Amino acid sequence: MMNTFQFDTALLLVALPEIFLLSSIVVILLVDLFLTKGFKQVTYYLTQFSLFITGLLAFNLIGHPETVIFSNSFVLDNMASVFKVFMMGATMVAMVYSRHYLTQHSLFRGEYFVLVLLSVLGMMVMVSGYSLLTLYLGLEILSLSLYTLIAIARERSGAIEAALKYFVLGAIASGLLLYGMSMIYGISGSLNISEISAFASDANLGSRETLIINFGLVFLVIGIAFKLGAVPFHMWVPDVYQGSPTSVTMFLSTVPKIAAVAMLVRILIDGLGAMHPYWSDLFMVLALLSIALGSVVALMQTNIKRMLAYSTISHVGFIMLGFVTGVVTGYGAATFYVLVYVFMSLAAFGIIILLNKKGFEADQISDYKGLSKHSPWFALMMLIVILSMAGVPPMLGFYSKFFILQQLVSAGFVTIAIIAVVFAVISAYYYLQIIKSMYFEDSEKEIVVSAPMDMKLILSINAILILVIGLFPDFWMKLALSLF
Amino acid sequence: MENIYLTIALAPLLGAIIAGFFGGMLGRKATHTITILGVLVSTVLALYVFNHHVLEKGEIFNQNLYTWMQIGSLNISVGFLIDNLTSVMLVVVSFVSLMVHIYTIGYMDDDDGYTKFFSYISLFTFSMFMLVMSNNFMQLFFGWEAVGLVSYLLIGFWHHKESAVEANLKAFLVNRVGDFGFLLGIGLVLAFSGSLDYAEVFSSLDNTTNQQLWGLDLITVICLLLFVGAMGKSAQVPLHVWLPGSMEGPTPISALIHAATMVTAGIFMVSRMSPMFELSDVALTVVMVIGAITALFMGLLGIVQNDIKKVVAYSTLSQLGYMTVALGVSAYSVAIFHLMTHAFFKALLFLGAGSVIVAMHHEQDIRKMGGLRKKMPITYWTALVGTLALIGFPGFAGFYSKDMIIEAVHFSSLPYAEWVYYAVVAGVFITAFYSFRMFFLVFHGKSRVDHHTEEHLHESAPSITFPLIALAIPSAVIGYFTIDPMLFNGWLDNAITIDAEKHVSMTELSNIFHGAAAMIPHAVQTLPFWMMVGGIATAWVFSLYRTQWADWVQNKFHRTNYALESLYGFDRFNEIVFVGGIKKLGNLLWKVSDMGIIDKIAVNGSARLVGFIGSVVRPIQTGYVYHYAFFMIFSLLIILTWVLFAGDNPLLQIEF
Amino acid sequence: MTFDQILFYVFSFWFIASSLAMIFSRNAAKAVLFLILSFFSAASIWILLEAEFLAITLILVYVGAVMVLFLFVIKMLNIDKSTLRAKFAGYLPLGLIVAAIIIAEMTLVLGGNQFGLDVVAAPARHAADYSNITVLAMQLYTTYVYPFELAAVLLLIAIIAAITLVHRNELNRKKQSISEQVNVQAKDRVRLVSINSPNKENK
What we know:
Chain A has 19 helices and two strands. By secondary structure, chain A is mostly helical. The longest helix of chain A is centred in the middle third of the chain and has 30 residues, at 159-188. The radius of gyration of chain A is 22 Å and the shape is globular. Chain B has 27 helices and four strands. In chain B, a hairpin with a 2-residue loop joins strand 3 and strand 4 (216-217).
């Protein structure tokens, strides 16, 4: 045993983004300690800088041949690199938006940024995880950081409660996930994704093995469904979205979804792809439930964060439907959907944050009354985002839905596609409520946009890109397809 | 030619962009000059294209201009298909749009949103061009959505009016239903043919033979779904509810969008898809029946309306029904023919109504008008032309197109065709009745205008009367000149496919057709003509000669009247079933998922509602997390049981 | 039945019994003690499985450190027993039914008929000089070095999280301000007040 271990430092280069990020986290943590009050912005800039460099390093690795290191527990392939680049980009945008919120609500603290970076690290680990163990550890790193991030606003009513709920339910979900992993390990004798895959796709797989793998599979699916927020494991989503500080809500509703999809791909497709007929039925049910519940319950909401939570649930349903198809292009469609979703969600929360003031959260739909008068530009941006979420062409959100539905129909799931479409129609109604209050209602209150220039700029670019990429979606769709 | 086509589409877009972004800077005059110039360019070029394709029998132009995206083997492009059908549509759209642009100068004169309005209608014109010029389903769908979007924007243009906002929402939601049917249809087209290009789809129609879906032939399902889209856009029963509401928008757009062009997009689309619809008699029958229902029953509603625009709106619904009937009996060219004549005379009627409304200081109730003939001679005479064309008075444009539809139904061999025949003939009476009722009430008889308005009553400005005259001319004569080439001499042949063996209407029609002039004397011997005369006479009796009879009838038949005035209860039905139902469902699901059903059902007693809205500061409630956790475990149990014992591949068979 | 087996069943029984007792005990301090008992039983089973190091660690870390800390916390906080129990009884029947079904299903899939000795061979005994710690250490620092590092990151987060959440704002921190101390003036520290005493009865 002692002789079998080889350690090639050159191979470590494929993990360079992670290594760099971890090192900068430690540095930022220490630097922040010694910063006096006036210099706290340094932490913010250091954070953005290290995210940028990490993204750059990850970008450099796109096109690198698939490599597995650390005794089969870390994989670098194109999906990992592209996801990492997207995650860095999305986090940077989220940080630009967050800064305004944090200063407004006196939450601007070094730990906030460090925890965000740590959660990003956890997500990177998940994206590159090639054994059940590392996937699990990545998930825990992510979750623990998120719990803390939510609770960081102790004075905020509901924040502690949200954190605690998320923590307790997340712990249960983790437990189930871990339990499922142990069953898979128990029957296949390995934690490694490729070995599990080899075991599961063995043509002579006995009925005992099939039984136990699928039993474990149920637990794994539940763990993943919880992370994605799919019905019936969605209970935490609205409460946590509403209770958390908006900047945290924005972060946790966007970037971790990419990581969750990555984990899904690693476990269910790379690892247990052979079991697709077994888990796809389950997925289909969860997906349809999510779409139905998300679309319908959102109608009743008056709180925009809560409404977006239900909207997320229905988006997640669409993403899961992509995996139901069982074909590579369907997976590509789901990946495209999640990236588009992140993009739209960032912009939507960006606008909520934009309208924040000290001691005031613009989180009621009625707070948007008359926005078109007070700030026609950002009303227009919100309009683009909302239309995109509703799936109105030519916004980006239309393509993601279209792509999924097209894949479903061509894979023969016509009825499923129709049900999804019916609920998409229903969901148009609640998106419309926001547009209605922005454009057709007047408010007695003055709405002042006090955000710094950089945020306004990035937010505008973010929203406009939803339209522009919608006009030229070809490249991004191809990119999503090329990952599988 | 490619550049000409592009210019047709882009000129109004350019106008819209300039008007939209720089309208405030440029001022009103420059804005309307630029947008009108853009549409004028399109109109001139459209005429040129018409000349090239239709009169000189030029080659069909079918080319992709730009590849939008490529998913696997699926190519989605921007491309133009210019054939005779497109050419006809281009002329109609551009001409009506031009007239409406000019009319707007006068109509919107005192409105704050003047430049914005010009931007919108130019944008609409562009979208409509893209829709009719498309050579693939995707672009068609985009044009479809874009015209819809502009339509919503314009319906809600006066958003300080509560009713306008509501109508706007209704239009949006109803159209979603249609659009998603349409989208599904497109999805199925994609599924069987692997392409979205018209030509490729039509050439792979053989793939669909003997394929079934939900107990119907695949092609039938596809056609029906596509027709659902057409029903939404062209306001066929039961998706018609949004069109009367859309009258809340300014009148020029009622003329342009909700009468002449956008609402006919469904008719255009079905004609375009004629190779597919020809394969399914079931779909054609549905189309025909829906059309007949719309034509007859929406016309009936026109009788009880008192808002001048609503009367014209219901007449539009009814006429769209006629077009749909024509589609159903495979007389696509007749449908397009009626589409064209209708575009002219209905735009004319709307603009005439608009002229009256402006003169009356935005009073729209016809019971408060009367005797306007002397005050507004130009409006009067042009409205007379429009009305005669609408009711199908021999010689006028509507006469030819409507008569041809009735005859085509007469020859159809589809099931229920005879019933539809009676419906469309009865429709003639109704059309004449409500049209002349409105006409008499507005222009003849004693003035019921209030004194203050009476003093200021005068003919509208030239920018309003010019379009009226310019539209009155085609409304009168276009039918006479185009019936022969359009229906029987192959103007539309290269765009429309008819299975002549199964669907004989067009062949039979051409057998009995002996020239446009010969139709006029012949008409006197036919039933529809006398129905029309009866309609006019009845209208005269009720609205001028013995007005008290109208009240008597209303009282005597109060039940019928109630049904009509409540619009057959469609709105109420929608309100209760869809809006109410979905809200209830939402409430229910919310209670189930959010408020702890476990508490209520499983553990009865502790029915403490756990608050949900965040403004209430809520202490951490263990019971609350408890619910969630329990719900998760319970779901686990359900899923485990399902996976083990149920589902398609149960893992454990229970042996007894 | 061999002696090993007897021991196994004894420890298993204690394990399950003490876990249940922990769940159902009304007193939080007692619950912790039962948890400690269940840890001991688990550690014993590990020893039977020849995993001495893990057994010792379990006792040292969990019993020796974590549980003692728990006890301190419980003794310091005044936990109201009645509120904790209020809803418990209501949920118990339903919870028991759900738990019973899940346990039944699990036994069906993971029980003896799937993992019994007739299906899976018993692992071979190690030689007497086999060192559990060496093997673990080798594995941990070679094959599993990446997960090991990740676990370290996890602990780092735990530290940051704990400090962030407990740490109050600056006002509550007691720290020296040297410049203030140096610049202090007598009038800042001492205030002389003249007190009128109206009556001197109390003398």
